[in-house]
# Entry
Amino acid sequence: MNNVIINREFSVFVIARFLFIAGLRMTPVLLGWRLYEVTGSKLSIGILGLSEVIPAVLLALPAGVKVDRSNKQRLISICMGLYFLMMMGLLLVTSQWFTSEISSLGKTSSQRTIQWLIYGLVFCTGVIRAYSSPAINAFLAQLVPQESLVRAISINSMTWLIAAVTGPALAGLLLGYTNITVAFIISCSAILIAVLLFQLIKAKPISWQPGKTKTWDSVKEGLRFVFHKKALLSAISLDMFAVLLKVKHALY
# Structure
């Protein structure tokens, strides 16, 4: 494979992204199992998905502007670190120790406490996701020369797909042979290693030049651009319907 693409920083980026995505993709399986165990309701699993999707969608436009104006390496590191803290919170909330500690509240109250703490933490991950996803995609273009970008994107997409399959499969195996606490420890460890690896990548110049344009003015300008580019609007709309179908599938 071309050495121009597989340079040190890109290789570190791919490994860190694999561990990060695999660790994150373990979470829906673990939380879905835990929520159903606690509530016995299929609807709770659908609400779990909405808890992350709603903030991610609502903050997508202003987050995109923030990403353009930020040091992407630093922003991604912060997002990964915050993800790690949220995963640690979920590790605590889903543990048997936490369940026993709040058992004095009564069965119904303790179940609702666990349920809403999970929703709250997942909501926070949705907020983080609004910033991390565009930042990671934009940062990739700064790691390789322009002529190598297409191949780099292909490798990055393949890495994401493999991680997206590996994470849930690993979560299922760990639930079958160990318990949810062990599974979350492995998930948190993968994310922590990804955070540490990402520090090996040097910060890149910020392409955005300071000006007087406010965030919402930039959002409006971006919307006008999208609506005038029919091909881009069609692609975004198709992606949006795909996300909505995933949410609908989760609800049923």
